[in-house]
């Protein structure tokens, strides 16, 4: 594992993924839980999807950062 390239996923991005995909919240409701606007939540979620997709497709490790 230590030889893999790493994709950094922020705690905020992880929380957005959890709220949307695990808790099945709509974006507006998830944004409220994160105390942010729906457009900001969408930006965070899109960034998270891109990073996770990159890690899966390119065989990279995912590191959760604060």
Task: Show the helix and strand layout.
Elements lengths: L5 E5 H12 L4 H7 L4 H21 L2 E5 L1
Helix pairs in contact: 1-3, 2-3
Keyword list:
single chain; alpha+beta; Arc Repressor Mutant, subunit A; 3 helices; 15% strand
- Could you estimate the helical fraction of the residues in percent? 55-70%
The helix-and-strand class reads: alpha+beta
What count of structural domains?
Answer: 1
User: What is the spatial order of strands in the main beta sheet?
Assistant: 1-2
CATH class: Mainly Alpha
Sketch the topology as an H/E string, one letter per element. Answer: EHHHE
How many alpha or pi helices? 3
3D shape: elongated
Rg calculated over all Cα atoms: 13 Å
> Any idea what the CATH architecture is?
Orthogonal Bundle
Largest sheet: 2 strands, parallel
Q: How many beta-strand segments?
A: 2
Distance separating the two termini: 21 Å
Residue stretches low in confidence (pLDDT < 50, at least 5 long) are none
Amount of beta strand: 15-25%
Q: Oligomeric form of this entry?
A: single chain
Q: Overall pLDDT, averaged?
A: 96
What is the CATH T-level topology?
Answer: Arc Repressor Mutant, subunit A
In short:
By secondary structure, the chain is of the alpha+beta class. The protein is built from three helices and two strands; from the N terminus they run E-H-H-H-E. The longest helix has 21 residues, at 38-58.
